[in-house]
Amino acid sequence: MDRRNLLAVFNTKSAVSIVYKEIKDKYMDILEEEGFSLYVLTTNLCPAHRRKKIKEIRKKLKENQRVIVLSSQLIEAGVDISFNCVFRSIAGLDSLIQSAGRCNRHSELGYGKYGHVFIINPDFENISLLKDIEKGKEATQTLLNLFERNSEVFSNDLESIEAIEAYFKVYYQKQKDNMTNRFYINNREFLMYDLLASNLKLRNDTIRNLGHNDRRIIISQSFKTAAKNFKAIDNYGKTILVPYQEGKEIIEKLVSASKNSEKVQLLKKAQTYSVNISIDKANKLGNAIIYYDNLGIYILKEGYYDDTFGVLISPLSM
After folding, report:
1. What is the pLDDT of residue 186?
2. Would residue 315 count as lying in a domain?
């Protein structure tokens, strides 16, 4: 097996951090002797920082240098990069296939040759709060058990149509209670599916309120009510501007800016030096985050942004 370069993808940023520190403490001397470079890619890094790292990684891969990349799921979509070998922490089959697509992506190993993709199940990775990933992992495990017993049913290929159909049947079965999107209006329970289907409850209410003599055509579906009560993505934490490279200059200029036109231009630039963090992480950072009411933004103090991990809970000096 060609071990010239390697990608390991995990479901959580904490798992990436654990593996990095383990490698750094126990194996870094050996890796440096053999010419390996070690990188971390997670959403704790601002977009400008991630782009810089990915550019370095691509350059080293192109020059046939030895590279190890530890990444969260961000590398699965929109990142055109290829490795000889990929390790993927078990998750939904769709995520596994995406990660596998980062292995020998451009047939750099030669015509007819394959890279190696390994599915791993680390005991230090906690996904109990990531319900979608947890259900995807369970569905994948069911599929792998079926595949092991009789792979011919799936054309001996985990990426076959048969395997993908089997996976999603199991996955949707496990997710059925979460997919109804249950909510309440005036203490009455509604399902999102019902609002966009026959919608008998609200339709009958409307007919009673209008009276039998009202001849207006009534659309059964309550699109406005559904839109009001549905969120594709829940509100997630806070967006903070970080002091990484040009981000430091942007922070200095924003704090002292007096003209609104100048602030608008700086805030546009600030987007690529910003990181979304959870409410829990924001609470742990505490006074390390400063809110500027006149700008409407949060700014991370110096010393809480690291070149390897990005946003840190504890300052670098510690």
Report:
1. 80
2. no
